[in-house]
Amino acid sequence: MSKDSGSIMLALLTGAAIGAGVGILYAPDKGDNTRKKISKQAKKTSDDIVSRISHATEELTKTAEAKKLDFEAKLDKTVSNMSYKADDIILGLEKKLEDLRKKNAQLQK
Q1: Of 1, 5, 47, 61, which has the highest C-beta tally within 10 A?
Q2: Which pTM does this prediction carry?
Q3: pLDDT tens, 70-91?
């Protein structure tokens, strides 16, 4: 869920809660019943917000875990490639060193 869609969702939920509250306040009912309705609606809205936040958190956690695994795989591949390149460089240097030793031995004669 992107930051913008999260903000929009929160704005919609807030607007719905305010609208429901205003509707209840203007409805012809006893004060005690009105307070119960407001309390019930506030609890429902609170539960809905908690549920949506929980869902968003789960989705972000899944996405972060997937990105972490992808990064680790790419890192392992890069390290492996570098290891092979380092081995190639070492073999090349060893060959050059052997050639230098042979030339040095020839010059010593």
Answers
A1: 1
A2: 0.48
A3: 999 999 999 988 888 888 899 9
